[in-house]
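Response to reviewer comment R2.3. The reviewers asked that we include at least one raw input/output pair. We reproduce the pair for Acyl-CoA synthetase here without editing.
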Amino acid sequence: MSTTARTLLDLFRRQADGAPSHPAVSWRSGSATQTLTWSQYRDLVFATASGFVELGLPAGGIAAILAANRPEHLIADLAALHCGAATVSLYGTLARPQLEHVVADAAPSLVIVEDAAALARIRELDWVRAHRPRLVSIEPTGDPSVTAWSDLAPGERGTAELRERIGKVIPDDTATLVYTSGTTGSAKGVVLTHANLVAQVDGLVGTGMLDFDFRTVSYLPLAHILERIWSLYLPLRLGGHVCCCPDAAGLAAALRVHRPSCFIAVPRVWEKLRAGAEAALASPMFAGHRHTMARAQEILRRVWSLQQDGRDVPPSLRVEAVWAWHWLLPLREALGLDRAVVAANGAAAMSGELRGFLASIGIDVIQGYGLTETGGVAVSERPRAGAVHGAVGVPVPGYQVRVAADGEIQIRGGGVTKGYRNRPEATAELFTEDGWLHTGDIGRLDEDGRLHVTDRAKEIIVTAAGKNVSPAAIESLLVGRSVIDQVMAVGEARPYVVALITLDPQRLGDFARAHGIPPEQAAEHPLVHAEVQALVTEANRNLSRPEQIKRFRVLPRPWSVEAGELTPTFKPRRKAIHDKYRDSIDALYRSTTPTEGSHVS
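Raw output as returned:
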């Protein structure tokens, strides 16, 4: 396919014309899989777009969508683009004040909701009550004032006007607003144009990583730029097949059914998959082969370690690695990742320890780097092509990266946003005088042009002794290990670093059963706290003295998105957690001089 497409509509038209009978979107309906071909996908998008015109969605307007990852969400998004409008997908986990802020800022003239529950959430918003946008529900609600999805129809007027609007869409038109979830402050709407998103997908294809039958599972929130790229825009460029998984809790089953060729996840999901792999390795399924599989894992880990250190892999070890990779195929089949040509990590950095484990079972996870403001991925590793420890890769074609004198990473390129919606001052602050994007991240470029991201500038801890400490470097040694779920290191203007630690319910239950601990006592049991203590002590051995965790507290429950403690991609909201657990943090500094890594009850 030519790379001279000007808009996302061009990409869609070319794909549907060029491969009309190829699968485009699939989903589970009961025990069966339903599939739309590209020609069927196009017909539904056009019919829906005509219906949106009939409902009054204006060119240049906004359509908001509050729904899970289902085919109607994808259809509605592309239909709005064909109307000359832009879209905003809404996180289903937003608290009411957060949802109010995003909807009021986006000011949609049309809102598509999934069902009666989502409709109720939208209708309770002050902005919606005041401005009364048109409402469409995918599932029946029984409310005659709401247009049912099944009643959207291509009227004569809507179809004629739609043709005119399609011809007027230009590259500089806004295609979507993506609200940055952020770890502090209110969300800002990042404006991304057709040109931005075409540049992003062209750049990703230009890396050479995606030269295969693109098949992916859509399960991360479509309000996040990562999922939008993988589920909406890349398939338009590659002719990909998107398999919808509306509930992330069903991801494991969806992977086994759909077996993606390209799978992207955030670190928390990779941690869950590691736990699944460890459980499978310990199960009766592989009982007779544990010694051989352990040997195969060790071979693949050695290969990965050599590659990460930038060293050559001896030919004899390469031969052994082929044997090991094939021997571990049944384990990858059990995970549904046996056909994954590309496995990638996004949204936050993955620890080297986690990457090493995944590499040891034949899943070589690619790191990348980008922001919502860069339109997606701006820097990426390449599979088996010179990845080294601590680096996130080289610029994606169409992007440039530089590191300023103060260490800040700055980016420019075709995918970079024009700015924030309704935030001229924040937009002005987003760019340098010569037009580079401020990322707020700290890093360096090595002699081969690879980018190393060391931390968020605003998240670096400066202790009372004036020591700069990276919380990410500390937390990555503990997150997802054994019974530990999440970790937040604290120490700003304090004499030493302490940590808040939460436990993973599933792994805590497994630990309790293995040690004969009553489940209701597990979180407070001395054996569990001893396990956490041992993990903290081990982590401290790999940290400099200013970085070491001097005291920690195990919290009684995991953090959640719903409670406002995690972003929708499961990153801790540091300020919210700090404010909520201020008394616990203060208590960690109140008592006597700490011993290294001591636990406080």
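The mean pLDDT is 90. DSSP finds 21 helices and 27 strands in the chain. Further pairs are available on request from the corresponding author.
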